């Protein structure tokens, strides 16, 4: 079952269960996907968005909510922070399993070998290879410095 179908069936199930918090988060996911579909249509790319782009959308949504939850916690609004964290749990149901630190390190090493990267100038190629294979499975903000360090040692 593709990602869109899973999201749609989850929306229907949340409606049946009368789970309004889950339903609102699922509708936000669906709206973000439709926005991206519309943008793709405007660029004359009628194919819509594929699963890798959907994973990128979901990853971005998780990151936004983590930032917002942190801001709410700093402001002492724990009720709003808890709501953001609950939304993160719903969104993460559709993301693949996160890689451990060891798996991330192995993936970085494999991508460096695969792309033939030898210097910092090749960082874009390595990051592109990682994003193509591991979208939604690792935090690329944290992986970037790791790639940079490995290429600096090469």
Write up this protein.
The protein is mostly helical and 154 residues long. It folds into two domains: 90 residues, Hypothetical Protein Yqey, Chain: A, domain1 (Orthogonal Bundle); 53 residues, Arc Repressor Mutant, subunit A. 77% of the residues lie in helices and 0% in strands. It has seven helices and no strands. The longest helix has 24 residues. The protein is globular, with a radius of gyration of 18 Å. The N and C termini lie far apart (42 Å). 18% of the residues are buried. The model has no long low-confidence stretch (mean pLDDT 88).
Topology:
Blueprint lengths: L2 H15 L2 H23 L8 H24 L3 H15 L8 H15 L7 H12 L5 H14 L1
Helix pairs in contact: 1-2, 2-4, 3-4, 5-6, 5-7, 6-7
Number of strands: 0
| Average of the residue pLDDT scores | 88
Largest sheet: none
CATH architecture of the largest domain: Orthogonal Bundle
The number of helical runs is: 7
| Domain count | 2
Helix content: over 70%
Backbone structural class: mainly alpha
CATH class of the largest domain: Mainly Alpha
Shape: globular
* Estimated share of beta-strand residues: under 5%
Q: Whole-Å distance between the termini?
A: 42 Å
Q: Uncertain runs with pLDDT below 50, 5 residues or more?
A: none
Query: What's the name of the CATH homologous superfamily of the largest domain?
Result: Uncharacterised protein YqeY/AIM41, N-terminal domain
